[in-house]
Amino acid sequence: MTAVLLKGEEAEVARAEVEAVRAAVGESEYAELLDELLATLDTGAAVEGRHSDELDRLLTLALQSGRVRALYGPGGEQAALRAYRKLPSGSQLAETTSAVNEALVSLNGRRIDRLSVTAVGPGAFTISVTTDDGPQLTVRLDRQGTRIASVEL
């Protein structure tokens, strides 16, 4: 279970986004979840469990849509990104990106023979790297993040 402590502008932007959604949903079980999340943010306690998952979902949507930058400017967007990186999706993206970087390190010192980018679908791309002495890596970039799609030695 992920427990996330947000402070300062991170908490302010997160709270504003939760409040905006809360204002739009009326009374429901979902509204109760948002009220609990708001109470947690108000106390400065760590957000965890289903509250962490919901905040993750809301910040993901707000960042992807450009809403955060439009409403709070670049500083607010950076605060939202810092908060997002602490949440499950952001942590997972950091892990997969680190794994891709580790795989790319294996190409250091080799001559790149071929480099290509392929569009595989909406918002999804692969980057293929072939070296002069054989190894080939294919990296996939899409909404789920960055990951190694294939390795040929």
What does this structure look like?
The protein has 153 residues and is α+β, with helices and mostly antiparallel strands. It has two domains: 3-86, no CATH class; 109-152. 58% of the residues lie in helices and 24% in strands. It has five helices and six strands; from the N terminus they run E-H-H-E-H-H-H-E-E-E-E. The strands form two sheets. It has a four-stranded antiparallel beta sheet with strand order 3-4-5-6, covered by helices on one side.
Main attributes?
single chain; 153 residues; four-stranded antiparallel β-sheet; 5 helices; elongated
Total strands: the figure is: 6
Largest beta sheet: strand ordering? 3-4-5-6
Q: Order of SSEs, N→C?
A: EHHEHHHEEEE
Major sheet size, sense and barrel closure: 4 strands, antiparallel
Summarize the topology.
Layout: E1 3-4, H1 8-25, H2 29-43, E2 47-48, H3 49-65, H4 67-86, H5 88-105, E3 112-121, E4 124-131, E5 136-142, E6 145-152
Antiparallel strand pairs: 1-2, 3-4, 4-5, 5-6
Helix pairs in contact: 1-2, 1-3, 1-4, 2-3, 3-4, 4-5
